[in-house]
Amino acid sequence: MGALKPWHIAVLVVVLVLLFGAKRLPDAARSLGRSLRIIKAETKGLVDDDKGDLAEKADAQAARQPLPPQQVQQQPAAQNPPVVDPVQRTRDVI
Predict the structure, then answer these.
(1) What's the rounded Cα separation, in Å, for the pair 61 and 21?
(2) Which residues fall within 8 angstroms of residue 86, CB to CB, at 6 or more apart?
(3) Furthest-apart CA atoms within the chain: distance in Å
(4) Conformational region of residue 21, where left means phi above 0, alpha means psi within -120 to 50, and beta covers everything else
(5) Does 37 fall in a domain?
(6) Total structural domains in the chain?
(7) What is the pLDDT of residues 34-83, one digit of tens each?
């Protein structure tokens, strides 16, 4: 039931010729072709933009990830500063 048979297409062509006329039909087909090309180009542009956005997000996410353990350089632990008694400190100041 869903497929177009040859006589369906013939009836469709006859109706189109009657509605638009033989002179306007080629111009209408050309306009339709141009419109479809523009839509295709815009759709491709949007898909390319989305791929670019995904690549930028992946780059940003990779930059946020920590380095693997073998690449991290460990710094020597800082020695704890000596604890100064606040009372002794005030005596030194006076």
Answers:
(1) 59
(2) none
(3) 113
(4) left
(5) yes
(6) 1
(7) 999 999 999 998 888 877 777 777 777 776 766 566 655 566 656 666 66
